[in-house]
Amino acid sequence: xxxxxxxxxxxxxxxxxxxxxxxxxxxxxxxxSVGRARHHAAHMLRAxxxxxxxxxxxxxxxxxxxxxxxxxxxxxxxxxxxxxxFTLGLEIMGDLVEISVWDPNPIPPVLAAPEAGQTHxxxxxxxxxxxxxxxxxxxxxxxxxxxxxxxxxxxxxxxxSALRDPDPQAVGD
Length: 173
Prior knowledge:
By secondary structure, this protein is α+β, with helices and mostly antiparallel strands. The chain is 26% helix and 31% strand. Helix 1 (32-47) packs antiparallel against helix 2.
């Protein structure tokens, strides 16, 4: 369920002449939360004037990262439908959008190549292919981890593919 919605302006950073922006949304570990997280991301990115390509890529990444939380939640409090929660963050960082998902499970995500016919295990492959960089880090406060992915913040009619990050994937950054 929708527990917080806190849009706020950051200080000192600009993107295309606009102030940096950050938003966080805490959600319960329930199946409907994936759609709510995706809707929130699309709404905020459109409010920040992101190009449709950026919005679409971000929504795909949000879907994969939030689904991973529900599939891999660890411990009784975090199991699907048992009262656990996770937090989706979106932040404009210069000409990038960072998507982050905090959950209380400290076990880092594993990028694996799923076998043909396997019905699960492609989420991080999709994140890696869709983002310019992705990784994970321990949570700054309290237990758990943050899994993040970055995309170019494209405004106007410029296709997102025109602003790919030349750096290789940065798992564990």
